[in-house]
Amino acid sequence: MVVLTGALGAGKTTLLNAALKQGAIRNAAVVVNEFGAVGIDNALIESSSEDVVLLPGGCVCCQVRADLAEALIRLERGVAHGAIPAYERVVIETSGLAEPGPILQLFAESPMLAGRYRLEAVVTVVDALLGAAALESGTTAFRQALLADRLVVAKSEQSDPQSLARLEAKLAAINPHADLVRAPRGAAVPAWFESTMPLRERLVPAEALRAAHDESIESFVLEWDERQPLAAIGEWLHALADTHGARLLRVKGIIAVEEHSHAVAVHAIQHLVAPPETLSLPAGTSRVVFITRGLEPGDVRPGWSTAARAAPARRP
Predict the structure, then answer these.
(1) Strands 28-33 vs 277-282: parallel, antiparallel or unpaired
(2) Which terminus of the chain has a lower count of CB atoms within 10 Å, N or C?
(3) Which domains does the chain have, with CATH numbers?
């Protein structure tokens, strides 16, 4: 079993997609955890023959830990009944808000799981552009790096050499025992997901095993039925990034646009808006998930004529 963790927008799903496409991960069942009212990451994972299980509506280190255990047992039953193909390993992609410590405790302490699953590696993805600011002591991102067996620096090709060197030095100071690799977009190497040998001298502080969340974090989803021009979507997202900046922790959506028959994926994190990406999925209802600090649906609702529907806000 591999636990894939990292901050909001770090690039976990992008790395997982690349690993599945290129065969860096084979014969795997993929469990996706999202915090928020509606999950979309399972649709963004192009998993070919892999089985994808979505755990929406909470953080996997907190209220849905029991759901995670149940999902793994359900996968086993599916294989036994012939409903899904046999798999050799499980990859758990956590929410960007998830603390890895409680997840590791679950597998160590649960009688139901301890004899069935062996943890191969905790792989933490770090954003080369925004990661340094998130790694302050005591933050979730800090603990994700502290407990990693392997640190994967994503978007390294977009960072200048000096900033990248400072980030890697900071990561090495936080966790000198972890493997440290760079992952340009679209790259995936089997060794990044392979088992790591335990290190006896590695001591993990007890506080790193506990979950802690910012009470100001809110999550909600906006939905609409009518196709919109891609340019209008882009202007809306860029305006949100310019206006709200650091309060816009993560925006991710699957939308229908006038220019394409297929769905389009959109992503933003703080001040950065990624280029849109056309998916192989047919276009349907547009839905965009927001994870914010202190923002409400009315603060980010788009300005086109048909008002977007908003699901109730959620908290970790």
Answers:
(1) unpaired
(2) N
(3) 2-209 (3.40.50.300), 217-310 (3.30.1220.10)
